[in-house]
Each structure stands twice: as C-alpha cells, then as structure tokens.
Write a structure and sequence with these properties.
The protein has 844 residues and is α+β, with helices and mostly antiparallel strands. Helix content is 42%, strand content 21%. The protein has an 8-stranded mixed beta sheet, with no helix packed on it. The longest helix has 21 residues, at 325-345. 52% of the residues are buried. It binds (3S)-3,7-diaminoheptanoic acid (B3K) and zinc ion. Its EC number is 3.4.11.2.
Length: 844
C-alpha cells in the first residue's frame, strides 16, 4: 500500500461546479446516477482527470453526452476529457446490504445510511473524493420507504421519492443519505437573525421516548454557538439520525448528522450520567462542526486537527458552560494524561498534524483530537480571551467556504495579535510529550523557578526543539494563603528561569495550574507538600492533582509490595471528602484512583517493568485500607450522594451520584458488598445500578445480580453492550479470558456490530491484569477476534489493535507473546490496509 505524504500535496486539477445524484435504492443493487459539472482549476497546471472509486460496477459513463473510455488507475479511473468545462454523467451499481465495512452506503437494521468521512464517498460513485473539492449537491432518493433523507433542505417529495438541495459547497465526505422506517421527534429553533429551523431526531420506531435529552442538548448548542462564537445555523432543517451499526461516535454531515444510537438515546432506566454527559458533548460537537469543519473544511486529511482539535475545544468550552468548569478541566486533563500520553509513549506516537499515512482512518486519534484541542487551549491562554475572539472572527470571515490549513489558522492569530507563532507551530509538527522539570531557588525575598524542557524521541523524530509552554503558576504562603495569584509564564527556551520578588517567606509553588500545557511535570515533591496543596491550593486542577500524585505514589509503592500508604494522603483525602463546601463532583474525582494501566505506565516511565498482577493486588490492598481508615467520611459521602426523587441528569445531581458511587466502590472492599447489593436492588436509575453491579463484580461477587441484570435487559441493545463491557471488564483477572470466551459464545454477541464488538474487546483489554495474563491467553483472544473482524470491518479491527501498542512496556515473556500476536495480525495475505499499517507501526 502507498504512503501518502503532506509534502506531496498538489491542488486538484479539476473543480466541481455542482453535483446532482439520483439513488435508486435496493439492498443488493442500488443504482447511483451522477451528473457532475467539472471545470479546470485555474490554480493548477495539471489537466489529468482522475476520479476515485472503490468496488463500483459501472453501468455507463459519458462526458458531455458521449460515452467515455475509462482507464483503471490506482484507486480509481482516468479518461480523456476536453480542455474546458464539461459534464460527467455516470450510472453505477453498489450493494449496500453486502457492505460490512460500514463505509459508503450500507444498511443497519434495514435502514440505509452512509458514512463518507474520510474516504467513503468513493464507494458510492466515481468522484474526486478529496476535501479540497467542494460543490453544492442536489440529491434525489428513490425507494419504497417511509423516510428518505439527504443533506440540505427538502425540495420536493412524493410517494417513494424525495429531493434534497444543499446549497452550501461541501466536500464529498460530508455527503449523507438515510432511508428507511424511521420516526422523528421534532422541535424548532429560531436563530439569532430570526431564521426558523426545523429540528428532527430520527430513530427506530419505539425509541422516540429517548430523544428528549439530545434535543435539548441540540438547542442549547445552537444557542451557545450564537452567543459565544457568533455562529448561526444556515439551513431550514437540521436532522439527526440514530443508527445501531456505526464505526465512530457520530458524523457531522451537512444538515444531516448521523449518530451511533449509543450517543443519542437516553432514558434514566437505560443510560448512565456518563452517557448523558457524552450525549450532550457529542451532539454539541457535531453541531459545532457546521462552522468548524463544514463551512470551513480541511484542505487535505493532514489538516484533520484543524476541524477536530478546534471542534473538541469548542465542545469542551460548551460542557464547561453547561456543567462545572473545574470538573470538566480535570476530566479533560485526565483523558490526555491517561490516553494521549500513552499514545505518545509508544510506537503509534505522531504529531497533531501527521506528515504521512497509509490509511487516514488510522489517524482519528486522541492526539489529533484531544491534543489538538489542548494546543488551541494553549494558544488561547497565550493570547488571552479577547484576542482569541478576534482571531476566530477573522478566521470565519477570511476562510468561510475554504478548504483551509493549519498555516491559515495560525496566520489569523498572527494577524489578529501581531505575535510570531513560528515556534508555537512546533506543537503541530513535533510528536511526543514534553517533560518539564523544575528547580527552585530562594534568596533575599526572591523565589526563582528554573524550568527545563525536554521531549523524548518518537518514531521518525529523534531530536526535538524547545516548544512554547504556557506555565500557569501561583504561589502560596506556608499558612496557606495565596501570595501570588495565577500568572502564565511563557517558556520558550530549553532552560529558563522566572523570578518572583518581594516575598516575605519562601512560598510553596503551585505549578501548571489548570493543566496549562499538555506536559509531564517532573518534580520530586514531598508528600507533606502535596497534602498541603490538596488542602490549600486555590486552583482546582492542582488541588486534585496533588491527591492524584499521592494516590499514584501509594499505588506504585503497593505494586512493589510496600505495606502502608502515606498518612498525609489518607488524612488529606479524608478532610477534603468531609468538606461539604466542595462540589461533590470534585470530591468524586479526588476518589478516582489511577487505574492499573496508569500505574503500569508510571512504573515504566520510572524505568521499572510493571507486573500486572502485583499492580492489581496492590490496588485491591490500597482500596481496602481506604475503606477501613476513611469509613466514616466515605459513609457520609455515600449518604450525601443520595438523590431521591425523579432522576435528573444535570451536573448537580450527577455529581452527587458520582461521589456516592466512588465512595461505594471503595466501601465495597470492606463490607462484603452489602451496600452495593442494596443499591442494585433499589433500582433507582441506571447510574446507580451499574455502579453497584460494578462494585460487586470487582470483589468477585455479584454473579446472581449480573445474571438478573442480563435477563432484564437482554432486549435493550445499548444496555446489553454495557453488560458485555462490565462483565468482561470486572471479571477476576485469573478468569477474565474464560469469561470473555463465554461472552463471545453468547447468542447476543453480534460481533459485526461495532458497539457489541468494542464492548467485549475493550472490556477485556481494560481489565489490565486479565488481558495481560502471563500465558498470553488474553493476547490470543484479542488477536483472534481482530483477525476475524479485519476482512469484515478493517477500520474497527485496526482501531481495536491499538491495545497492543504497549507491548514494549512489559517483561520479556509478555513482550514476546504480544509481538507474536501482532505478527499474527500482520502476516496474512489478506491483511487490510488499515490493520496492516497499525500492526506494522506497532512492531517497528
Ligand atoms: N468527523 C467524524 C469522525 C469520522 C471518523 C472517520 N473514520 C466525527 C467527529 O469527529 O465529529
Ligand atoms: Zn469531530
């Protein structure tokens, strides 16, 4: 397979003036008729005519009405064309019912739907399937089905047909079509300038009762984008469709977002607080793409972070506004540190803007998305909120209708602020997590922080240059008062010092407040100082981080066999827990202990070889110690977190439940499961039931409860996914693989459905000691299933394979077994481009 490089970008030879498509739907033989008006690109000297296409059966093709002679070319066709504008007309046949890859036009439970990003449109018809070719689309859908949807505004319809018109120029990856037996939940939204928009959420009959929350989230997103970014919606309709078979979470197709049903449907009985929060965020994310992604799109797929980083940043701002800013920031920092740092540490590390790829689907990563958002957060911190707003206004003004680049993006910031961002740009090109170490000096009332930054090598990038780091710092007095409020230090050198003068006592520093840069802060801090920050820091992130660092140290020690955690931690935690002036959601986060894999990473970072079983049993011991020593505070938190009355998914009550359930999880280590069992039996809402069940399973109990849960929910697909994930994820490590095997034999294990496949595979892989069983049975289980899925759905197979990216972290025996598993995935004649690229990179 060919490697595509950013450096080889060339503008398209031909542009598209407009597109008209007709679909005659049939599961086995859908006909797609296209009329495309091409014109030469004045910005290109190349006149080669090339159209992408994959698995298309061509019925006819003409140019200006005359039959065209098509020649096969890599990934598509070419043919001779006039040296002037012309009209291409083609008819092709495709088989949506046979499409298991779920890219292009496919079927899910009898519903026709599409997924075209990144390169799925070429499975629908011949087309220049690249994001810098934008055109207005008119679509006619024919089929004997009650609902026929496409992008844009509805034009006309009759029995068995409907016509749609999308006036906004768009790349093919934003094309969508949905048809089938669907019902709509409807609402309306009036935009800032008074435009009436019909909103529809389309679901399978029977699911209408679970759309209200998503609809509210949509309206709140539309309002927020007007108020905060000045962005108004631009069509008369906005439709969302929920489908059960979907490779990703959701897709921002113009005017017709398609969602994984897991991210739309919610009711108190079936969805947890976490699901509600995710639905709110993803609805917002896809809606926000209308401006950051659709109106302004990406020139090429290397620029993916242009739309994804920015849209994640925007959805994070939205969630902060809807919920708690401090809690959201901690959650996002936690995601980056848990998952993005992990990606950076291994063979899959890549820059926020990668420079080459084989299969672009492999680069929809946490680095592109979440680190891409962090980079924007840093930019905003550096230039300030007002300048950020000016830059964004300029971006929308200057690039509306464009397929833009990271250079364009940075240019608007340079123009709006007069800053030189050439060094800052390294955040887009250098992979890896900078390590920031700190020395301190104290003399004559002057306190000096001396920082050193260094980024370890990553694949293809042995040497790194210093990056611009916004380091937010505050200083506390020994009595706990803040003497220097938060100040953002701008570090640009490899080593640089910053002095604070006129202090009466040596201060205690609070460094990297609000997680102001995605770096690893390397600083030896005595546990007493961490406990001090846990008690006094005014910055919620650092306050939480102090508790995390103490917890991490305790868990690392415990994995090494040490007996007792630092009393500072337990006491500090106890005091914070009992402080009812603190947001319950924040206190819940204080109780969120690092997971087994976090500890494995931390040990590896220190140069130790992690032992999954020792980590697991160390964690169980720490959990018991906490349960015993903090039992009064945990009990109190458990009761404080009760939320009687009707279920309310909003941040307040959800935070209370989070506190209750974190406390429950710890208490369960010492009470034999009594509280958890009672909570499952009380059956108040899915959040509390699943938390109870999970606590029970984690102590090796709860088999009967899990079975009853299964029987009750076996017909609810989304709840059954949670059951698969929970049972595999919480199984005792020694029997986790056997549990996973029997789950794979379960009649409901519909492995071709991505949600079900992921539930089981991610469940087992998240069971750290279970997956990393020394005899390699966990590796074999995953590898077997990935190999089986690969020919069916390469994209999901490749994504799942990333659980092997950590292989170098472990002992020789495990390394050997993981490597063998990777080879088994790779060394096959029919390995997909997707999985092939991933396995190859992991083995390099
Ligand atoms: N843009 C889509 C992701 C498409 C995934 C393609 N493999 C969803 C999102 O980020 O909003
Ligand atoms: Zn997105």
């Amino acid at each position: 397979p060919r490697t595509i490089r950013l450096a080889d970008y060339a503008p398209p030879a031909w542009l598209v003036a407009d597109v008209a498509l007709t679909f005659r739907l049939d599961p086995q033989a859908t006909r797609v008729l296209s009329t495309i008006r091409f014109r030469p690109n004045p910005d290109s000297t190349d006149r080669t005519f090339f159209l992408h296409g994959e698995g298309l059966k061509t019925i006819s093709a003409t140019i200006d009405g005359r039959p065209a002679t098509l020649r096969e070319a890599e990934g598509g066709i070419t043919c001779d064309v006039p040296d002037a504008p012309f009209t291409w007309e083609a008819e092709v046949e495709i088989a949506p019912a046979e499409n298991t890859a779920l890219e292009g036009l496919y079927m899910s439970n009898g519903i026709y739907c599409t997924q075209c990003e990144a390169e799925g449109f070429r499975r629908i018809t011949w087309y220049p399937d690249r994001p810098d070719v934008m055109a207005p689309f008119r679509v006619r859908v024919e089929g004997d089905l009650p609902v026929l949807l496409s992008n844009g505004n509805p034009e006309a319809s009759g029995p068995g047909w409907a016509e749609w018109d999308d006036p906004w120029r768009k790349p093919a990856y934003l094309f969508a079509l949905v048809a089938g037996d669907l019902v709509a939940v409807r609402d309306r939204f009036t935009t800032l300038s008074g435009r009436e928009v019909d909103l529809g959420i389309w679901v399978r009959p029977g699911d209408q009762g679970r759309c209200a929350f998503a609809m509210e989230a949509l309206k709140a997103s539309m309002r927020w984008d007007e108020e905060v970014y000045g962005r108004e919606y631009d069509l008369g309709v906005f439709n969302i469709v929920a489908v059960d078979d979907f490779n990703a979470g959701a897709m921002e197709n113009k005017g017709l977002n398609v969602f994984n049903s897991a991210l739309v449907l919610a009711s108190p009985e079936t969805a947890t607080d976490g699901t509600y929060e995710r639905i709110e965020a993803v609805i917002a994310h896809e809606y926000f793409h209308n401006w950051t992604g659709n109106r302004i799109t990406c020139r090429d797929w290397f620029q993916l972070c242009l739309k994804e980083g920015l849209t994640v940043f925007r959805d994070q701002q939205f969630t902060s506004a809807m919920r708690s800013e401090a809690v959201k920031r901690i959650e996002d920092a936690q995601t980056i540190r848990r998952h993005q740092f992990k990606e950076d540490q291994g063979p899959l590390a890549h820059p926020v803007r990668p420079e080459s790829f084989v299969e672009i689907n492999n680069f929809y990563t946490i680095t592109v998305y979440e680190k891409g958002a962090e980079v924007i957060g840093m930019l905003r911190r550096l230039v300030g909120a007002a300048a950020y707003k000016r830059a964004l206004d300029l971006y929308f003004d200057r690039h509306d209708g464009d397929a833009a680049t990271i250079e364009d993006w940075l240019q608007v910031f340079e123009d709006a602020t007069g800053r030189d961002l050439s060094q800052f740009k390294r955040w887009y090109s250098q992979a890896g997590t900078p390590r920031l170490s700190v020395e301190e000096a104290w003399e004559d009332g002057t306190y000096t922080l001396i920082f050193t930054q260094e980024t370890p090598p990553t694949p293809g990038q042995p040497d790194k240059a210093p990056q611009v780091l916004p380091i937010a710092v505050g200083l506390l007095n020994p009595n706990g008062d803040e003497v220097v409020p938060t100040k953002v230090l701008e570090m640009t050198e490899a080593r640089q010092s910053f002095a604070f003068e006129g202090l009466s006592a040596r201060p205690i520093p609070s460094i990297l407040r609000d997680f102001s840069a995605p770096v690893v802060l390397q600083r030896e801090v005595p546990s007493a100082e961490r406990a001090f920050l846990l008690a006094h820091d005014t910055d919620p992130f650092n306050r939480w981080d102090a508790a995390q660092a103490l917890a991490r140290a305790a868990l690392m020690d415990a994995a090494g066999g040490a007996g007792d955690p630092a009393p500072d931690w337990i006491e500090g935690l106890g005091r914070a827990l009992a402080d009812t002036g603190l947001d319950p959601a924040f206190r819940a986060l204080l109780l969120d202990l690092p997971g087994d894999e976090d500890i494995a990473i931390a040990l590896a970072e220190r140069g130790d070889v992690p032992d999954p079983d020792a980590i697991h049993s160390g964690r169980a011991r720490i959990r018991r110690i906490l349960a015993e020593r903090l039992s009064p505070q945990l009990e109190a938190a458990y009761h404080e977190g009760a939320t009687p009355g009707p279920y309310d998914p909003s941040a307040g009550p959800a935070g209370q439940r989070a506190l209750r359930n974190r406390a429950l999880w710890i208490l369960t280590a010492a009470d034999g499961g009594a509280r958890a069992r009672a909570q499952v039996a009380a059956d108040e809402n899915m959040t509390n039931v699943l938390a109870g069940l999970s606590a029970l399973l984690s102590i090796g109990a709860g088999e009967a409860e899990a079975a009853a849960f299964h029987d009750r929910w076996k017909d609810e697909r989304l709840v059954l996914d949670s059951w698969f994930a929970l049972v595999a994820g919480q199984a005792p490590p020694e029997s986790a693989v056997e549990t996973a095997r029997s789950l794979a034999d379960h009649p409901a294990f519909a492995w071709k459905t991505p949600n079900r496949f992921r539930a089981l595979m991610r469940g087992l892989a998240g069971n750290h000691a279970g997956f990393h069983r020394a005899d390699g049975a966990g590796y074999d289980f995953l590898a077997d299933w990935i190999v089986r899925l690969d020919p069916v759905n390469p994209s999901v197979a490749a994504r799942t394979s990333t659980v092997f990216s950590s292989w170098k972290r472990y002992d020789a025996g495990r390394q050997e077994r993981m490597r063998a598993a990777l080879h088994r995935m790779l060394d096959r004649d029919d390995v997909s481009r997707d999985l092939g690229e991933m396995a190859q990179r992991m083995l390099e």
